[in-house]
Amino acid sequence: MAQNNLLYPRESGPVDLNLRYFVLRIVPFVLLFASLAGFGQDSALHSAAQAAASAPQPVSAEVAAAEAAIVKKDWKAAETKLDLWLARHPADARALFDAGYVADAQDRLEDAAGLYRRAVESNPESFVAMLSLGLLLARQGKAAEARPELAEATRLDPGEAGPALKARAWRALAEIDRTADATEASTDLLEALKISPETPADTLLAASLAEQEGNYESAEAAYRRVLAKDGKSATATAGLAHLLIARKQFPDAETMLRAALEQTPDDPALMAQLAAVLAAQNKGEALPVIQKLHEAHPADRAITRMLAEMLAEAGDAEGSDKLYLGLIAVNPGDSALWNAHGQNLIHQLKYAEAFAAFDKATELDPANGDGWSGLAFAASKTGRPTVTLHALTMRSKYLPELPVTYFLWATAYDTLHDKVAAASYYHHFLESAAGKYPDQEWQARQRILLLEKKPGDGR
After folding, report:
1. Considering the chain, what is the average pLDDT of its residues?
2. Which domains are delineated in the chain?
3. C-alpha distances in angstroms, 238 versus 198, 258, 260, 288?
């Protein structure tokens, strides 16, 4: 039985692939990165702490001297004075907070977290210590640990710290809640707005939350409000373009992105969006744009992945595969990467290697329909009809049949001399092919004649 020579079918088109990784990974990361400023350390926290802690007891001369050094950002002098004081007064909540602030300012984050915790333990009503601890944990990416600290800060009396910092606690809580519960995050943001004026960052967060909840009109209106006040806001532009891309309003997104890039020509998020939009419109300019972006950010995995996909769609399977191999080396448990690697190997006619790649993809993710498609094809090309049938059976759980898969079913059964099944699938293939695969359709008709030939039939 001759092997078929159908080109390997990609289950997803180029636009869907590029937009999937762009829309889901690059833009949300940019918006989240912009929001992290709300978790930062600043002098307002320390000034508030000094005011809140000034009564009812006077400040020791040693702590006062340390705080004077903090005002001058003389961290080493402040650290020395606080260490000496805390050696004799280890439960002084104000000094512990000061020491945590100094460690925080010097990027000694674990030391800072420990000192803030000790300050909270010494004075559980210390709003600024609780807030500082929550913000620090959030900056470290420890959302699960940060959330209870920030939630507690919203329940504490800020005292002299005032409503502005209480609102900051609510905003930080909203940033954490946005990943799991957009409704809860919206409630957090509303609490902040009850006690402080709305900021551009609030509007951006509200837009992002509205988008998460599927309220695209509200999201668009919010992004446009920011742009009306600040036409150069890259974050608002990226967010609005994200919406336009999701709606497949590619020309509108392209116009907006080109205008924004005139202001900030090297903005990575905007460049990636432009590449995605150009690819969606099948414009050849997409590849050079993403290549330039990759040259500027060679370690960015999302950008590398996007370039790898574009190269594959452009027919450069070898160039694409070099990038995928680098990505696999960093993340060997990503079944989609193994699947893309296998696709490239198929297009390079390296069927045995492709078989191994698809086998790995389906091992990592048994629900990977694309992986089972690839494994079925690679098994067919390497003479494994039993594996082909198993892969097609698994694939059918997740994806509908195609003319190509009908042909694979037929040739596998034909190789195994199951005439009835083979003829049946050849018929299915012919019914669905509709003249798109002339060589295989001719082959199917010839095989049906032989398979359905009865003894004594003169055909």
Report:
1. 86
2. 40-197 (1.25.40.10)
3. 21, 12, 9, 20
